[in-house]
Amino acid sequence: MTGALFDFSGTLFRVESTESWLRAALERTGTALPEAEVLGYARGLEDTGALPGGAAPLSVPPHLEEVWRARDRDAGLHRAAYTGLARQVPLPRPELYDALYDRHKEPAAWRPYPDAPEVLGELHRRGVRIAVVSNIGWDLRPVFRAHGLDGLVDAYALSYEHGVQKPDPRLFQTACDALGLDPGDALMVGDDRRADAGAAALGCRVHLVDHLPVDRRPDALRAILDLLPDAATAP
């Protein structure tokens, strides 16, 4: 294997907590609330799954089911899905819903897992080609740039840019084509057994990690260094 495909959220990066996300939007809109109300709204947003990259919704309202299924294939649908979930919580100002959605796209809302820079850097040093394959409704490249990791990624295959989402094999094939690799020469690293394991249909090897908070998963990515040799010396 001479190429590595990585999922974004829950694999290389983790979004901030729902409480932190809400506090940032409150500050952005100049909204001051008692602490008890902040915590209550955060719990409600957590339960509805309104934070992209955060907890999954406990349930999706019937009027959002169709847009929810297609959310990662179109930027407008992605915004509609997540702001729709957030609107299940009666926040005190209507502008907060868009402020919340905009906040989650900011580099400051994301933290790389502790071993992500090390692992990406080592693979790059070995000559392993790297692509990010993500179900997402917005351009995550600025997140990688802000955290100094963009120079380690050779290609991005983002679902909303291609109108297909994992586990559709076409998105993984797009990434392999961008790297100039046969899928059989690539390892897909992700945290979702359904979405990321779809790469196996193309012949990619799949390695899964747990979607945990950053401080609870310090070194899960390091295991892939044993799976991917120096591309220059690989048989």
From TrEMBL:
Keywords from the named record: Hydrolase
An MF annotation (GO) of this entry: hydrolase activity
InterPro entries xref list: HAD-like_sf, HAD-SF_hydro_IA, HAD_sf
Keyword Thylakoid among UniProt keywords: no
Pfam families with a match to the protein in the record: Hydrolase (PF00702)
Name used for this protein in its record: Hydrolase
PANTHER family, per the entry: HALOACID DEHALOGENASE-LIKE HYDROLASE (HAD) SUPERFAMILY PROTEIN, PTHR46649
Claim: Oxidoreductase is one of the keywords in the record: no
SUPFAM superfamilies per the UniProt record, alphabetical: HAD-like
Extent of the signal sequence: none
Gene3D superfamilies from the UniProt entry: HAD superfamily/HAD-like
